[in-house]
Amino acid sequence: MINVTDITGLASATLAIAASLLLVPPIRRLKRIHIGLLMSATAILVAVPIGALPLAAYLRGGFGDLSITTNVLLAVAIFSHLSGRRPVDGKQKSVMNVLIAVTALVFYPLALGFGPFDPYRLGYGSPGFLTGLLMLALGAWAVRFHLISICIALAVTAHAMAWHESTNLWDYLLDPLVSIYALVAVLAGGLRTTTHPSGRNLQELPTLPHDRVESTRCP
Amino acid sequence: MTESGEAGSIGSRTLVLVILLIGFGAAFVKSFDRPPAGLFQPRSIGEAGDGAPHFETRFVSGGETPQTHAPSLVELTDGRIRAFWFAGSREGAKDVEVHTAVFAPGRGAWHREPSAATRVGTQKSLLRYIRKLGNPVAVRAANGQIRLFYVTVSVGGWGGSSVTMTTSTDEGKTWTPARRLITTPFFNLSTLVKGTPFLYDDGTLGLPVYHEMIGKFGELLRLDKTGAVIDKQRLSSGKYSLQPVVLAQSDRKAIALMRYAGGQPPKRVLRASTDDAGRHWSHPEKSSLPNPDAAVSGVVLADGKILVALNDIESGRDRLSLVTSHDGGVTWKTVITLEDQTGLPGQPLDRARYLETAGRLARDSDATVPDSADYARAASVQMCREAGCGFEFSYPYLIQARNGELHLVYTWNRSFIKHVRFNQAWLDRRLSETGNDQRH
Asked: From 3.30.70.260, 3.40.50.720, 2.120.10.10, 3.40.50.300, which CATH number describes the B53-341+391-434 domain?
């Protein structure tokens, strides 16, 4: 019998594959309805077993289960692109990218063995770690960075509900794909600021592809 | 902002706060539900038979596949011993399966059973692509079930490994669908098993594992009664230690021995210790035991002595010995050298000489072998290269049964699994015969 964690894992791999269509420029130029249909068809295609496994299982085999943060960002990107509305402003996403990038730069080397301290261990229910996260989430809420609060809150909830295979909270908060994405976004934003020092600030760091759907900022 | 817009904003802010508080409430409840750290559970051991010394050897596998490697053992409730190892056309091939066989002490013979895990079966259970299978280790959980842990790889070499678990409620005849343990945050890459799992006094399970991507270091996983990972502890760091084995001397005292994977001579087994049931481990230090970057295995005997099987040389894997320590692994004494081809003149051997020597070793290992030349030929396929042939006796796995008998299995020239069975009386006699010779 299929486990709940397999369903959630395959669903998130399917979401990632469907969202990746938004990275293809010709697809992004299609009408929203056509993009929606294309994404739905792709999702069905990759979720249905072909041979022994569905295509989504190959992505899952290689990359593992995607974090709740990644799922939220993908969902926001898809929603924005299909609805033409922007539920999260650019500044929030930029701050989120910086937060993910800095965390990943410190976390992964230590967790992969650079030194005796393993921060990954904190994810197995350390009350201190949870308290720190709660402070961060409340702080983000206080300054109205709701994307950060929501991502942390959903990750913590999903972990408590054993949503994914992993029993470690870190795997719900962060994964290598969202880390790489955030690092690239921060670096590209920094580069842009250096090249055009006059004007652009964090609001114009590159984020997910839906940014191009609707821009209310002045050129 | 209009009044309705403001109300909407306040509403969504409140919703975010509610989600946040509910999520963290659930997380804190779960966190406080986690079992507190347990104590080690040294095993109580009985006395076998009439207490007369006995020592015997035989092969577990009969050359069904060209390559075999990494055996492990678990005792069944009726006193029989079940072995697991991985085997196939070659290490890392898609046809590699986790083989199993059962040893009936009364009959003194192994009986091969259907594979415990296959690549395709594992892939189907895990709903993800699996490229190859590796090291298996098994343990009897607190609820009486047997848990089998084995290495699976989806992408790349052994550095890309993760650990998969399956459970048997009928002593290993059938197995539940496999589950993957998530143990690292980077695509769950690079956790492998080799050391013997053990129980804590609260029924949770200690699973020694190791990491070998970029760094090489030992870790200890703790699993709850359902097999979920509830803690992970680093036993070492850096790029020089693998395959930890945890040997509990009391409920709080234990040592961890690790394979030395560094290049800095002298090459020695690494030793760390704890006095507080593993809450803190000492920094691993080189022991007096030589180690050629090869696995070790051991048990703690009823009298507190530690018995270890290892390749007690600094290069190659052509000698395998049993050594013992009465002082918690500080000093060691050789009990017996089980295999030794280090002194063979003219190495590497040509194929003809290899076949002759391997045939003799096979006959000496198991008198029931129908044709020792077959064994020698199978070994030569794995161990002969253009430059010549060599011997390998590696990956020991040692357990003590409830009746006090000791069972050791190891890879014999990458083509067979060899079993050595002996008892405490034989061990005592060997120790009195060797006196103070061969100290490390």
From this structure: 2.120.10.10
